[in-house]
Write a structure and sequence with these properties.
14 helices; 2 strands
Length: 364
């Protein structure tokens, strides 16, 4: 273990996996299903508030160009909260995952959150969310082009349906939305590619090194803060961003503090979900949350609406669950087979009882 400490991180062989926590309450002793349900409901709660605050911030006139500065403040909040949690509650800020892995995670985290935040200024919010539901498309294209992977017919069908649904949603958006801007589509597409990568990178790192959520958030967002700060200096956006936020402190720093706080809890909960259930289940839950976010967005904020949003959204939803079914085909088939077997057994039992009653009636 001494050599591991000299290298700057702790050996995973000398430590048990971190406890399963829900807002710092240890729920490791709970059965798996209540754990999963409690964490999933908490993810819904915090990210619905997150979505509302994110859209509300960009309702401020003139906010459009300052998405990256907003991301910088978010990253600082995440870093401070995670350090406080590790230092005061966990009792140490030890690192288990190597620096080179954290630099990789930080890069994808910055790309995902920064481009996603920046795109809100240029897109209708439901369009931004529907794009974030479609990680399968870049994953599939990357697998074919980079790794030479071969995919089954269901995966390809899901990707085609997803692309078709996105195209219909984008077409509807271009017709009715006053915020339509191709720049926003480029940003959210690049964010989507980074987001498709980051889940698997995080899952592998956390399982390999038994790292806690707090550690992953602290180091990845602290490094990410440096990346964004340097980027804002080199692009010359830091002074103008600082001036704009200082001019509207309540609507910028105030709302961002709420956004960053609920986002921090949300990130921790998603990481917990990844650790206990895997990246695929976590993606399924966050996708369902995004679908509800879209409905809330139309309900809470006045914006143009067309029925084409509904049909295109349903096509994307169908594609998502085709992909989920394909990844868990054996489990799904076993589940439905058990239901069918029980149905047949109960039907046979019911029919045999009816036959017995008929025989008794005839005898009488």
């Amino acid at each position: 273990m001494g050599s591991d400490l000299k290298n700057g991180y702790l050996s995973n062989h000398d430590h048990l996996p971190p406890p399963v926590k829900l807002l710092n309450f240890d729920i490791s002793s709970w059965p798996k299903l209540p754990q999963f349900l409690a964490i999933s409901l908490a993810v819904f709660f915090f990210y619905l508030i997150y979505g509302y605050m994110q859209e509300l911030i960009f309702r401020l006139p003139g906010m459009q160009p300052y998405g990256w500065y907003l991301t910088l403040i978010q990253f600082i909040i995440y870093s401070v909260l995670s350090y406080s949690e590790m230092y005061f509650i966990v009792g140490n800020v030890s690192r288990r995952i190597p620096w080179k892995v954290y630099f990789q995670i930080s890069f994808y985290t910055v790309a995902t959150m920064g481009l996603s935040n920046a795109s809100v200024g240029y897109l209708n919010y439901p369009t931004q969310v529907i794009f974030k539901c479609c990680k399968l498309v870049p994953v599939l294209i990357g697998g074919i082009l980079i790794q030479g992977k071969k995919y089954g017919i269901i995966d390809l069908l899901a990707a085609i349906l997803m692309s078709f649904g996105l195209a219909l949603f984008t077409l509807a958006d271009s017709k009715v939305s006053p915020n339509f801007n191709p720049k926003g589509y480029l940003m959210i597409s690049l964010a989507l590619v980074a987001d498709a990568i980051i889940g698997n990178v995080q899952e592998k790192a956390m399982k390999t090194f038994n790292a806690s959520n707090e550690e992953v958030v602290l180091y990845s967002y602290s490094i990410g803060t440096c990346f964004i700060f340097i980027g804002l200096i080199f692009t010359g956006q830091l002074p103008s961003s600082f001036y704009f936020f200082a001019k509207h402190p309540a609507e910028t720093y105030g709302y961002t503090l709420i956004l960053g706080t609920v986002g921090y809890f949300g990130v921790n909960l998603v990481l917990t979900l990844v650790r206990i259930s895997g990246a695929l289940v976590a993606v399924t839950i966050t996708t369902m949350r995004k679908a509800i976010t879209i409905i809330f967005s139309f309900y809470l904020f006045s914006k143009p609406f067309t029925q084409q949003y509904i049909w295109s959204g349903l096509i994307v939803l169908l594609a998502i669950y085709l992909n989920i079914y394909n990844k868990n085909k054996q489990s799904f088939d076993s589940f439905f087979e058990n239901i069918l077997t029980k149905f047949k057994f109960n039907l046979k039992k019911y029919l045999s009882k009816n036959d017995e009653k008929k025989e008794m009636f005839l005898e009488v």
